[in-house]
Amino acid sequence: MIKAAVLGATGYAGIELVRLLTNHPEVSIEILGSQSFAGQKISDVYQNLRHILEKECEELDLEKAARCDVAFTALPHGASKTVIPSLLDKGLKVIDLSGDYRYDDAAVYEKWYGEKHSSPELLKESVYGLPELHREKIKKARLIGNPGCYTTCSILGAAPLLAGKIAETKNIIVDAKSGVTGAGRGLSLQNHFCECTETTKAYKVTNHRHTSEIEQELSNIAGEPIIISFTPHLIPQKRGILSTIYVNLNRPSSAEELVEMYKEFYKDEFFVRVKEVGELPETKHVAGSNFVDIGVCYDKRLQRAVVVSALDNIVKGAAGQAVQNMNLMFGLDEKTALANAGFYL
Amino acid sequence: MIKAAVLGATGYAGIELVRLLTNHPEVSIEILGSQSFAGQKISDVYQNLRHILEKECEELDLEKAARCDVAFTALPHGASKTVIPSLLDKGLKVIDLSGDYRYDDAAVYEKWYGEKHSSPELLKESVYGLPELHREKIKKARLIGNPGCYTTCSILGAAPLLAGKIAETKNIIVDAKSGVTGAGRGLSLQNHFCECTETTKAYKVTNHRHTSEIEQELSNIAGEPIIISFTPHLIPQKRGILSTIYVNLNRPSSAEELVEMYKEFYKDEFFVRVKEVGELPETKHVAGSNFVDIGVCYDKRLQRAVVVSALDNIVKGAAGQAVQNMNLMFGLDEKTALANAGFYL
Amino acid sequence: MIKAAVLGATGYAGIELVRLLTNHPEVSIEILGSQSFAGQKISDVYQNLRHILEKECEELDLEKAARCDVAFTALPHGASKTVIPSLLDKGLKVIDLSGDYRYDDAAVYEKWYGEKHSSPELLKESVYGLPELHREKIKKARLIGNPGCYTTCSILGAAPLLAGKIAETKNIIVDAKSGVTGAGRGLSLQNHFCECTETTKAYKVTNHRHTSEIEQELSNIAGEPIIISFTPHLIPQKRGILSTIYVNLNRPSSAEELVEMYKEFYKDEFFVRVKEVGELPETKHVAGSNFVDIGVCYDKRLQRAVVVSALDNIVKGAAGQAVQNMNLMFGLDEKTALANAGFYL
Amino acid sequence: MIKAAVLGATGYAGIELVRLLTNHPEVSIEILGSQSFAGQKISDVYQNLRHILEKECEELDLEKAARCDVAFTALPHGASKTVIPSLLDKGLKVIDLSGDYRYDDAAVYEKWYGEKHSSPELLKESVYGLPELHREKIKKARLIGNPGCYTTCSILGAAPLLAGKIAETKNIIVDAKSGVTGAGRGLSLQNHFCECTETTKAYKVTNHRHTSEIEQELSNIAGEPIIISFTPHLIPQKRGILSTIYVNLNRPSSAEELVEMYKEFYKDEFFVRVKEVGELPETKHVAGSNFVDIGVCYDKRLQRAVVVSALDNIVKGAAGQAVQNMNLMFGLDEKTALANAGFYL
Q1: Interval A174-192 mean pLDDT
Q2: Could you tell me the pLDDT band of residue D76, with boundaries at 50, 70 and 90?
């Protein structure tokens, strides 16, 4: 059994990790780290866990953590940077769900996060945990920067066009819509039910941090620097992200050709489902699952591809992808504990 | 492997059965019966199933069904009555999700359903599939009348008070609130999103069919005929039933005594979670799981118990309970494929 | 023009008052009181008000308030008790939306609110602001205790049965369901969108303060002390309360007789709409309006009436009723600014 | 009093017209046209109207209609084309809510609607009913093609950039999100509550009819043909459209300059509210009102404006705009019956 510590277990990404790991046949949850709820049972904080996992939450104790094989760090921004080097020193593999270890270049991090990176030397070693693009590196990694929710959805939606050299690299626009779990469990007026239901809005227009993550990965694929427009929106549902991606093409194409290109690119990927010509994804098709669904359209009038990708932001966009990475790092079947259909209803 | 046929696979109870059975290690789904979608892949009707189950739906073929071990019939009312005797003849065990085989007495059925029962002789043999009350009979049964959603929630909520002889049998009132999946997938104006979100209503006041089912089981427990008020309500959410149950007591009591009584009554029941004194259930604690959560309060001023019970209407109230029954009928661990926490978010 | 001060203008009851008063042809809003947002424009706090009302919020200044004719106090519990005597001294009429001035008997208040009443002498003078029961007193009042949302819905739902002497006064049960605006704008985990949508729960079972208010009014109608069960529930919608009321009858009746009794009782009431036999209310029929809709059913098996009443908790259950009271107190047509249909969608 | 006929009164646009007109001091509703509900009271179909408007629905009778001054036609596509010429012959002014009379050029209509236009000669006379752009023509018009919901939101969002000659006319992208009332009251599986809540999707990507309407108006403003990407999405709320509009600029700019440009362009428009720099619209700010809110951002890295506009699709996007047009056509204050704040909650 793989001994796992989940640090930040009572946030939404953390608790989804717990949900997934309680169904994982090769994992035993040893530590539920939570500052706010230390001393309380996880099943009192999330009562759905009664009769399933009644373990107590605790503050981080590095000596105790040293007995684990892997730590998932779903900590508030900044906190993970001080904890992770210690965990690595103790010999754990670490999968970090914050933005801290997702960048190739500390300067990019520092520009978008507005602060100095505390352990830039680890950025050389950390692997961007998107298995569909970096599987072999993940298998050998000690430290994973688990990708953001918007970014997973957007990168996988655009990658085949760039890899296939049919995309113009200018004028790429990603218009993304996210459910409210993406904003976390912290209290704020904007997430109060009465302020949040029956309304939609854009936020952080032109300056959301995930922009830089998407640009890094798309630039790597394209082999040239790419700058995009990325606009996040908040929609009144719990789970789900839908990214609508606009990409001008450098030559005429067709929906058939584009769909074929996507199918070929993802032909070995269990968790990517490319829609047939004329089909489009919906977030309810992916809610509760680790799948990304991608529909591809072609606008002949404008020689432009319009790609729509969907995933569950706390599964493939966070906890599910973290488990997928763990499976790879420990030599397990990548699909273990993740091969289910989602709940649709 | 148990070979299973799911008849009526594309309704909401049916598709939840499919979801649960795709995670069941001892079951192979052989037949997906659907009149409306025969010839289409189930994964085209419910696209969340892509990469998980891409089997075609088909019309019922009794010869083919004969090769199965068990049939789940989630058919429109009436349809099941003609199909089920044939399935039994072919040697299958049958778990019927309609109201047809839930009654001890055909006369009660006929009064509440307003029509003649076509196979009353089968009522003698059929077992009311509520494992917490009828486990031993279920194990030996060939035909299960799988209980309704409101009824499971209400019966399990009231049973300990009646069994404990502390309940007055008059003035029992069950006020129940259900999510919209309970109304099924059929189109109707009342289930149109714009007519159904942001609104709550009562319906079928004084005459909902589930009243008779609850009365049958509570009367059996009490050893005397019980007549109740049962009022169903539709609330703007997908999954979940919450029953608020009012029971006058025949002597003074306390919340502590009542909670203790419930804990004792359900002490061996994995799927019933009795709340501590002062705790109350919420449907989000049970959504996506097979659990029933029960909170018990005592009104000293009125010598009255107020019990609140919650379950997921399409899991413990339909498909999950059906799988639980199947597990019992085939000698498996009752919890197989059902021991998970629900999704909370 | 009536000069009005709205104290507590930025809470949900307060802002609904502002919305209604901006449409009132005889009222000018002079003061928008808000401690949290003093110095900010109301149209920055609630941006729907841009181009309609761009007035600044301010802290309470009694000298300035003295220039007004009426004050609506939608203040946190307790605050209103210190402010209101001063406002009365300055010659204003006061409509208080808290529980402080709703009681005939300070002892009842003190029992249910757990604290001493600071101005019990005012209880002798204050009028319970339910126009359908106390219109004549309201017209002459200087101080109104504006009724609670649950209470308005429940009292109006039960009153005709008690007034008609057909009700048994024992075993009256009110099972009420409320939208989330009823919990106010304050932040709490239970009102976080992700914790609150797609779930239903009961709360404060057996001990909600509104119980005492309902009992006071029903006892007055019946001419004898009435003790009820009252159970509030939180449902995932913004506006609306639905009360399901169970009343045993002291003789056999029929739906037809009962509906007729209700129509007669409310025949002069514009804001009470009694449904025809077989019709039931829904909260969407009343959302955004000052109406109360009431449906009446009869359970022949149990000689019991089941009454379902619905209103918008922040209109007829708070701000709309306050305006209705103001209209009466100032000799205006009671319907002024309130005679609209609600928004349905 | 203006005598009005509302044809198609029981659809969502029709009933919103009825709601607005019942509050209009200068209008008397003479005819409620409805094929499906002829013979029923409108207050039985929409029970929120009880005590407000209890008039019967009826099939269209041209002789009776001839007594009216104005007809609002909210009819299914195609139906309006046969009815409208007759209404005009009878001397009525007509405000048509379908797409039939929105086009300058019948060929564009025929391309996007896939059928012959039955009365192309009327297109010469009909006026595109967007007061902010065509006020003077509307005042004199006999026939108004009332704009679509997506189009009003998108045109008003982009117009100042094109009028100001700062926009590049290539690569304009409109990504729009609509609530479900936009899909009407007709039954369809996609609008079933359980299929529609908690999910988001794109639809009609690259080929939605409103594309052509937006292109027509933007081309007119720019003085050159404009082709855009327009992508509609369905989001789980009732009311509201949010359009996110991407426009490359032909020279460097700033948020301050752009906001100033918008404020100047709309300085006389009561129903357009331009946000301050850094502010963004939300659909809850406009729900229930006739306002359009517009926020303007500037992406320095890309020399691109990102504009976010929001309106209520059945008010400013349909019924409210129709009333605004009527006010203009009859010489009333344009704001009559429309100058309210929306309901926010």
Answers
A1: 97
A2: confident
Residue D250 corresponds to which amino acid? N
Q: Convert the pLDDT of each residue in D112-165 to its tens digit.
A: 999 999 899 999 999 999 999 999 999 999 999 999 999 999 999 999 999 999
Residue D310 neighbours by CB under 8 Å, 6+ apart: A201, D153, D240, D241, D242, D243, D281, D282, D283, D285, D286, D292, D293, D294
Chain B positions with Cβ closer than 8 Å to A: 12, 15-16, 19, 22-23, 46-53, 181, 198, 238-239, 270, 273, 279, 282, 284-289, 291, 293, 314, 339-345
CATH class for the region spanning B2-146+316-329: alpha beta
- Suggest the residue from A178, A194, A200, A345 to mutate for an interface test with chain C (most C CBs closer than 10 A): A194
Closest chain B C-alpha to A318 CA, distance in angstroms: 14
Catalytic-role residue among A57, A149, A196, A297 = A149
- Positions of B marked catalytic: 149
N-term to C-term CA, chain D? 33
- Going C140 to C143 to C146 to C151, the CA torsion angle's sign is negative
Best mutation target, A10, A36, A193, A201, to test chain C (most C CBs within 10 A): A193
Q: How many CA atoms lie within 13 A of B57 on its CB side?
A: 22
B305 with B291: CB under 8 angstroms? no
For domain C2-147+316-329, say whether CATH 2.40.50.100 is its number. Answer: no
Minimum distance, in Å, between the CA of residue A192 and any CA atom of chain C: 5
Rounded-to-integer distance, Cα C177 and Cα C157, Å:
14
**Residue that has been written with the tokens 């259930």 in this structure:** B281
Cβ-Cβ contacts under 8 Å, D288 against chain C: 288, 343
Q: Helices B210-222 and B106-113: crossing angle, nearest 10°?
A: 150
Q: What is the predicted ipTM?
A: 0.97
What is the pLDDT at residue A76? 78
Task: Report, as ranges of residue numbers, the positions in chain C whose pLDDT lies below 50.
Answer: none
Domain range list for chain B: 2-146+316-329, 150-313
Q: How far apart are CA C245 and CA D121, in angstroms?
A: 62
Structure token digits, residue D197: 């809540």
Task: Report the distance separating Cα B145 and Cα B98, nearest Å.
Answer: 7
Residue A153 annotated in active site: no
Q: What number of other Cβ atoms are within 10 A of residue A67's Cβ?
A: 13
Q: Chain A contacts of C185, Cβ < 8 Å? A: 189, 192, 194-195
Which residues of chain B have a CB within 8 Å of the CB of A337? none
Residues β-bridged to residue D28: D3
Alpha-carbon distance of B105 to C210, in angstroms, equals: 44
CATH of domain A150-313: 3.30.360.10
| DSSP 3-state of C109 | helix
Chain D neighbors of C182, CB-CB under 8 A: none
Q: Please check the confidence at residue D264 and state whether its pLDDT lies above 90.
A: yes
